[in-house]
Specification:
The complex is a heterodimer of chains A (318) and B (158). By secondary structure, chain A is of the alpha+beta class. Chain A is 26% helix and 24% strand. Chain B has 5 helices and 10 strands. In chain B, helix 1 packs parallel to helix 5 (63-71). Chain B is elongated and about 55 Å long. Chain B has helices spanning 3-15, 35-38, 42-45, 52-55, 63-71; strands at residues 20-25, 28-33, 81-84, 89-92, 108-109, 114-120, 123-128, 133-138, 145-146, 151-157. Chain B has 2 domains: 1-37, no CATH class; 38-157, RNA polymerase II/Efflux pump adaptor protein, barrel-sandwich hybrid domain (OB fold (Dihydrolipoamide Acetyltransferase, E2P)), CATH 2.40.50.100. In chain B, a hairpin with a 2-residue loop joins strand 6 and strand 7 (123-128). The chains are: A alpha+beta (318), B alpha+beta (158). Chains A and B meet through helix 3 and strand 6 of A and strand 4, strand 6, strand 7 and strand 9 of B.
């Protein structure tokens, strides 16, 4: 399989030119690949080689498109929008930790807004950032980063430190808060104040545009814009709209306008309230009812008389 | 720092009846404490005796030191470069389920080599090594939640 860069197709160039005033620092450098393994991998390689913030990689086809934890993102030719953008949320002016944590939610909001602007179609966001129509997935996001923050040395050296300085699970059971959610992990607010050295984040997204013959595993669980609307969709226009929306929400993030992002997310995320979810923990499967998201974007779940804050892990919507 | 070097240090600690000793060299920090002394402290006495073997990498090159110190009836504690979690999230040892782990105990690692992924807010954070060296311990199982500052790996730096 070849990964060869080509000139961006003229309709994409035109759409970007029309949107240029709304693109902020994004898309100053756009790389187009007729076929590639994964746009995230290309973007990561470009970033590592000194590529700058706002670099965009777009492919007509991905032969190894992937989602969270290596799941395949079905990316046949000319049927979807497969894009990766290099971002640096750590340069946010206000509480960069919070900005980094909210990046993926901001991206979900941006995609939902872009789809609406470009096609008129309203989509739901499922925490943290899948785009759904009904229960079918229309778009997904995969964000990857290299985290190089030094962690301050919190070691204790006296008395009890003997066992704390090296037993296989030194902190578990002692430092883990009682509301520890296991597979879904509760957040802690102590992250702020740590020196930040996180660099590039590769934000990849895929939107199903054309009707596709999905693999059996996806049938019934995926949908596309053209399937929903019954008419052809201009991929170039959608491409430019996603970047314009992303630029706008990224700007919110960098400027510390977190409430604007959270308000819009809540408006578009109905299943974050009152939906039954389950998640795995080291001590077994738990379930509860969603109770919104907090100011850091963590999913709140009412379970067994208390509220869990979930920031990661596998969550099943029942 | 090689094994002979470690033996010399332990011998010095013994000879001079030091209760604690710490040395840092080329990114490797070695911390030695004789528990014969620490046990007189109430805080330590209320705890079960630390088991040095648990601190040591299985089959790691430093294991003989434990044996040596046991013979000398002085519990020792050896500290290595510890990689800690910079965030709260879920720890993954491989890029995807079923794939080989990024590193195993005994793996030689290079500076900036990926050790694991920690997922937080669906951002997959690659955590890389700050040292050239060898992975001598992995403290967390794949798929487990980790807290800020929690130990992930011990690396014996070269």
């Amino acid at each position: 399989m070849t990964t060869r860069q080509r000139e961006l197709p003229p309709e994409f160039v035109e759409a970007l030119d029309h949107a240029r005033a709304r693109l902020g620092g994004l898309a100053s450098d756009v790389r187009f690949f007729p076929s590639t393994g994964s746009t995230n991998d290309i973007a990561a390689a470009l970033a590592a080689a000194g590529g700058h913030e706002g670099t965009v990689v777009v492919a007509d086809e991905q032969t190894a498109g992937r989602g969270r934890r290596g799941r395949t993102w079905f990316s046949p030719p000319a049927s979807g929008l497969y894009v990766s953008v290099v971002l640096v949320p750590a340069r946010a002016k206000v509480t960069p930790d919070r900005a980094i944590g909210l990046l993926t939610l901001a991206a979900g909001v941006a995609l939902a807004e872009a789809v609406e602007h470009a096609t008129g179609l309203t989509t739901d966001i499922k925490w943290p950032n899948d785009l759904l129509i009904g229960r079918r997935k229309l778009a997904g996001i995969l964000a990857e980063a290299v985290d190089r923050r030094p962690v301050p040395d919190t070691r204790e050296r006296h008395g009890a430190s003997a066992s704390a300085s090296g037993s296989p699970e030194p902190l578990r059971g002692t430092d883990v808060p009682s509301n520890s959610g296991g597979g879904g992990v509760p957040d802690a607010s102590e992250m702020d104040g740590a020196p930040r050295e996180i660099g590039n984040v590769i934000l990849g997204y895929g939107i199903n545009v054309g009707a596709m013959s999905y693999p059996p595993a996806l049938a019934g669980r995926a949908t596309s814009l053209e399937t929903e609307l019954g008419r052809p969709i201009d991929r170039a226009l959608l491409f430019a709209e996603t970047l314009a929306s992303l630029a706008s929400r990224y700007d919110d993030l960098l400027a510390g306008r977190f409430d604007a992002i959270l308000d819009q997310w809540r408006e578009r995320g109905p299943s974050s309230i009152g939906a039954r979810v389950a998640w795995d923990t080291p001590s077994g499967r738990r379930s509860g009812v969603t109770a919104g998201i907090d100011e850091r974007g963590a999913l709140l779940v009412q379970a067994g008389g208390q509220v869990e804050r979930i920031v990661s892990g596998e969550i099943t919507w029942l | 720092m090689d094994l002979d070097h470690l033996r010399q240090i332990l011998a010095l600690v013994q000879e001079h009846e030091l209760s604690e000793f710490e040395i840092e060299q080329d990114g490797l920090r070695l911390f030695v404490r004789k528990h014969g002394v620490a046990h007189h402290a109430p805080a330590a006495a209320s705890l079960p005796a630390a088991v040095p073997a648990a601190l040591l990498p299985p089959g790691g090159a430093v294991a003989p030191v434990a044996a040596a110190s046991a013979v000398e009836a002085a519990d020792t504690e050896i500290e290595l470069a510890i990689v800690k979690s910079p965030i709260v999230g879920t720890f993954y040892r491989s890029p995807e389920p079923g794939a080989p782990a990024f590193v195993e105990v005994g793996s030689a690692v290079k500076k900036r080599q990926v050790l694991c992924i920690i997922e937080a807010m669906k951002l997959m954070n690659e955590i890389d090594s700050e040292y050239d060296g060898e992975v001598v311990n992995i403290y967390v199982e794949s798929g487990q939640p980790v807290q800020y500052g929690e130990r992930l790996f011990a690396i014996r730096a070269k």
